Amino acid sequence: MVKRVAIIGAGVSGLTSIKSCLDEGLEPTCFERSDDIGGLWKFKPDVEEGRASIYQSVIMNTSKEMSCFSDFPMPEDFPNFLHNSKLLAYFKIFVKKFNLLKYIRFQTTVLSVTKRSDFSATGQWEVVTENNGKEARDVFDAVLVCSGHHIESYVPLKYFPGIEKFKGHYLHSRQYKTPDGFEGKRILVIGMGNSASDIAVELCKKAAQVFVSTRHGSWVLSRISDNGYPWDQVFHTRFSSTLRNILPRSVVKWMMEHQVSRWFNHENYGLVPQNK
Fold first, then answer.
1. How far apart are CA 199 and CA 214, in angstroms?
2. Confidence class of residue 148 from pLDDT cuts 50, 70 and 90?
3. pTM for the complete prediction?
4. Number of domains the chain is built from
5. Which of 72, 133, 235, 237 is most deeply packed, by most CB within 10 A?
């Protein structure tokens, strides 16, 4: 008897899970709460509760050569680093190629996943879903949770005493979509991760002044590395990985700092990470 697998979410992990199940002779059913595939990479102009949210200009920070599925290279005419719309287009080509769409139930929310009373003997799960106001129950032999981890924003206001008296506007990067509406403003971007850096650069084009606040510093890398190759193709070679594994940690640390500081001296900007 064919094993049935429930997959929650039709983003990048959900789509590859569907195909992997089919490759293994399993019967997948994917539940997607929205009306399309893509998950995080499906841009929408408005923030939706319970869904990941990205800003309009998001571009991948890993190259297409290192990010494509192992059995399905990206089209040659795609750029090295894809805009979110291009990555979504790739997912749709992938879905069409392997005929995955028929295994996805759109606009269906998973309400609960529980072990059945005979779980110790069968290992089966009961999945309750809701579509157009109607609940449904089904039994599966396995469940893959592919709902991502960028759904909820973390805004620790308790660490910002006086924020309740602040007369300006504050928001999490999850609420940010475009630089429109920030013209002529003085803006503080807290943090220096990928989103913070992207947004700070984008806001500089319209805002009066942009400040970036970082507690521990950060290595700032360009997407393009030696000889114009994508950074991850240069960094993640078998040779360089072997070298990093066999050399003393102090030598690796010196090599890494030398490499990342070739673009500019991080010490001049107070950006050298405290944890290196």
1. 14
2. confident
3. 0.90
4. 2
5. 235
Q: At what angle do helices 12-23 and 84-97 cross, to 10 degrees?
A: 20
Out of 145, 176, 206, pick the residue that ends a domain. 145
C-alpha angle 84/85/86, rounded to 5°?
Answer: 90
DSSP codes joined into one string, 29-89: EEE-SSSSS-GGGS--SS--TTS----TT-B-SS-HHHHSBTTBPPPTTS-SS-BHHHHHH
In single-letter form, the type of residue at position 197 comes to S
> Do 219 and 166 share a structural domain?
yes
Distance CA 100, CA 16 (A): 10
Asked if the structure places residue 274 within a domain, the reply is no
Residue range(s) defining the domain that contains residue 252: 157-269
DSSP-assigned letters across all residues of 91-123: HHHHHHHTT-GGGEETT-EEEEEEE-TTHHHH-
Residue 93 φ/ψ, nearest 5 degrees: -65, -40
